[in-house]
């Protein structure tokens, strides 16, 4: 895809702000020639390599390269890229159905069979992504959207590929960025990463989806990471009393310390919970359901935390203080650990590792 060096205003009418991050914002765009609505991701880029104000241009180029390779019905599409001296604009698919978790929280009851239909779309997108040797590295509820809220059946879209990476043959890749409650042990330990890193996140998301609990989350990020390293999670009976054994088995096979032992996205799609082999398995799935009372509580708390983080983010923007610094040259392109959806929740695991080592 050729970068356009004209003004985005020449081809699109710019509308309201959909969201903001540390180095930019997302706004609605209307294509003048067709009237089609898109979303514009306006990213401030660094004028000098030594500057901390803005995103490294190469990081945006890598995100563009990733999105160009991911033409899939469950992945946000990229249409255009505009480049100027101080800013780059990514024109992407306009996704206005809201977050999947918000959609589910509005329901009174959701069976495991219904939840599986959502997970299948997520897994199909991740399987396609991994077939291109691309890992997302920031899978979490905030990055799982619906293209249109009231569509039947709902169509899921994965968004925010700012931390994604396309692996080259023989490459060893490390990163210390991620959202604490969704990252696997290899991120905390600053070990080599792979597409299996995403599979751990899917295990956490599935656990939350079924129970309304986060398997490792504690009162502090340090304690959360300690729980991850200790593999300290369980299935409390009073919470999981309506969860099928196959669902628990599915989660168990993803929350595995050794990345090579985790199920792949393709293996997940043929797991008996997702693709039952017998009528009994189908019946058990249909009788089982999400713990909606707990799920609604979790989602309300999550939304409150996001709002609280937005206030903190705005205060930081006013002070123009960078949020975190990369721990090594390998992390330089990771947007200073920025997430497009949340600001303060995504932190460097390297800082947390130092805290953990000093407290043990």
TrEMBL record:
InterPro entries, per the entry: Kinase-like_dom_sf (IPR011009), Prot_kinase_dom (IPR000719), Protein_kinase_ATP_BS (IPR017441), Ser/Thr_kinase_AS (IPR008271)
GO molecular function, one term: ATP binding
Keyword set includes ATP-binding: yes
Cellular component annotations (GO), alphabetically ordered: cytoplasm; nucleus
One of the GO BP terms on file: intracellular signal transduction
Domain of life: Eukaryota
Binding site for ATP: 41
Protein kinase domain: residues covered: 12-274
Nucleotide-binding listed as a keyword: yes
Keywords: ATP-binding, Kinase, Nucleotide-binding, Serine/threonine-protein kinase, Transferase
Record PROSITE patterns: PROTEIN_KINASE_ATP (PS00107), PROTEIN_KINASE_DOM (PS50011), PROTEIN_KINASE_ST (PS00108)
Name of a matching Pfam family: Pkinase
Family statement drawn from the similarity comment of this UniProt entry: Belongs to the protein kinase superfamily.
PANTHER family: PROTEIN KINASE DOMAIN-CONTAINING PROTEIN, SERINE/THREONINE-PROTEIN KINASE 17
Protein name: Protein kinase domain-containing protein
Organism: Muraenolepis orangiensis (Patagonian moray cod)
């Amino acid at each position: 895809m050729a970068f356009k060096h004209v003004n985005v205003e020449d081809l699109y009418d710019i509308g309201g702000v959909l969201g903001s991050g540390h180095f930019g914002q997302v706004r609605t765009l209307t294509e003048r020639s067709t009237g089609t609505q898109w979303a514009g991701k306006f990213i401030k880029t660094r004028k000098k390599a030594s500057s901390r104000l803005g995103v490294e241009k190469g990081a945006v180029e890598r995100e563009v390269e990733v999105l160009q390779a991911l033409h899939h019905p469950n992945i946000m599409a990229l249409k255009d890229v505009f480049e100027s001296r101080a800013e780059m604009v990514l024109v992407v698919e306009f996704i206005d159905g809201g977050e999947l978790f918000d959609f589910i929280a509005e329901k009174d009851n959701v069976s495991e069979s219904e939840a599986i239909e959502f997970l299948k779309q997520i897994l199909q997108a991740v399987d396609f992504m991994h077939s291109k040797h691309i890992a997302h590295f920031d899978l979490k509820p905030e990055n799982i959207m619906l293209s249109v809220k009231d569509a039947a059946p709902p169509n899921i879209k994965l968004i925010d590929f700012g931390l994604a990476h396309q692996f080259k043959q023989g490459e060893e890749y490390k990163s210390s960025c991620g959202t604490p409650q969704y990252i696997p042990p290899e991120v905390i330990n600053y070990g080599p990463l792979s597409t299996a890193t995403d599979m751990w996140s899917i295990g956490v998301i599935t656990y939350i989806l079924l129970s309304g609990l986060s398997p490792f989350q504690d009162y502090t990020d340090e304690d959360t990471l300690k729980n991850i390293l200790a593999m300290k999670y369980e299935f409390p009976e009073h919470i999981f009393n309506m969860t099928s054994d196959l669902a628990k088995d599915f989660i168990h096979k993803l929350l595995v310390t050794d990345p090579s032992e985790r199920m792949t996205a393709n293996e997940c799609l043929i797991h008996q919970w997702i693709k039952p082999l017998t009528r009994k398995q189908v019946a058990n799935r249909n009788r089982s359901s999400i713990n909606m009372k707990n799920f609604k509580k979790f989602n309300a708390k999550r939304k409150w935390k996001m709002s609280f983080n937005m206030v903190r983010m705005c205060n930081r923007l006013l002070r123009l203080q960078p949020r975190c610094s990369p721990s090594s040259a390998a992390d330089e392109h990771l947007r200073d650990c920025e997430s497009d959806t949340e600001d303060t929740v995504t932190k460097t695991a390297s800082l947390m590792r130092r805290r953990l080592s000093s407290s043990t």
